[in-house]
Amino acid sequence: MPMSSAISYLPENERKKAAVIVRQSNRIKDLINDLNLASKFEYEMQPLTMKQENAISIIRQVVVDFMNMDIDDSFPIEWKTADTLTACYIHADQDLLKRAIANLIQNSINHNENGCMIYVSVDNDNNTCKICIEDNGIGASDEQIAKLNNTPHYMACDTNTTNQQHGLGLLIVKQIIKVHHGKTIIDHSKYGGFKVVLTIPK
Asked: Which strand (E) or helix (H) includes residue 92?
């Protein structure tokens, strides 16, 4: 039986405790995976499988996966993409793009322990596909955002472990978007939390 199904049979107070354990376990697993992937990118050892992909389909699948894992409904995700936009084709590695989006959604979850709303949108902007992941959580200071935008390596964030994990996940995103010849911009969200915009050429 999947972990999420087993947890659903527990009493409410035990379910909340189990959900925290599951999230913490996932954070450790993601941190190890991110360290391995960051090293592969750094030494140009990460193989790429680039082909024409519909970014909207890829991102929607990641969103659905996270919605299915939100056991206690603490992190609802709102799909803000226009109904009329059904395709945004880019030359991409599907698995890596999924990883980048998953890292950003997980980032919102990791840094908002009391829960938050997560907003995901895709825009067809001239010759680019613009992907935006933002939340209404605690956000970050101007100084933190400047550091995350400009510091090339996560270890330079500061000596705080939380910020290093924050930076590591975003480092992976930057590396992935860089190999797609795109840009990553970190900012304040109009919803009051954290925002990351990925711009990938079509």
From this structure: strand 89-93
